[in-house]
Amino acid sequence: MKLISKRLVLQTVMLILVCAATGRAEDTAGPSNPDLQAKLQYCKTCHGLSGQGYRGSFPMPRLAGQQPEYLENQLQAFIERRRTNPVMFNVAHVLSPSMLTALATHFKELNPKPLGGAPRELVAAGKKIYEEGVPGVVEDGARFLASKKIAFTGADTTAYEKVPSLDLPCHVILLMENGIQIMEMVNLEELSREAVYTFLFIALPLKIKGGVGSPIRPIAIA
Ligand code: HEC
Q1: pLDDT tens string 51-66
Q2: Best mutation site among 42, 46, 60, 72 for ligand 1, i.e. most ligand atoms within 8 A of its Cβ?
Q3: Are residues 155 and 182 in the same domain?
Q4: Could you identify the atom of ligand 1 that is nearest to the CA of residue 85?
């Protein structure tokens, strides 16, 4: 009788040890491969067999090649409703933390071809920009504008000043030394087409507290 109870105790202890060990294994090693594959198959019914995503009337984000930290953060955001999407909330809120990490890591390794259908004529323009840079304001121009005590300046190019440029001197002269705001990528087509040189200008930024920059809605009233 004594012997049996000792064995029982031993068996119980061993059982507990085994449980503890498998519990820990699941935490660190992540979900089993069949579980992961089954889940991936589900993700890929919407996001595409190689996570390439889709364009069109019901677009689907591309997950392939994306940073795991980014994907994990998005999934967590769907769960916490920081990002609201009913479909992805339903998909994500059932995922265990280790499954979430495993899924996010899987998509990083995929590298399908980019989706087709982009305008081909932009390829040549892109090559030219890559090789020759973009025209824009240079240092002398920035000093001239600052001497006129202007409040704002803008251009329709991506960087406002001439690129390539290692240290963006115009940004330093205008923003840092003179507190003059710079607008980039302003759509000036209409103003130049109508030859409008004088107008009331209104800039509507986003409500960002403590920020130093923002996308704006620029309005010209002539
Ligand atoms: C029923 C279709 C469907 C399924 C299944 C699905 N998704 Fe999604 N997923 C979407 C849609 C639609 C969006 C875009 C949501 C939005 O824009 O708010 C999205 C967005 C995402 C995003 C954000 C991507 C980004 O760059 O913004 C991630 C990450 C994601 N899904 C991961 C997954 C994973 C992982 C699975 C599998 C567990 C999965 N999805 C299954 C439809 C689906």
Answers
A1: 999 988 889 999 999 9
A2: 46
A3: yes
A4: 18
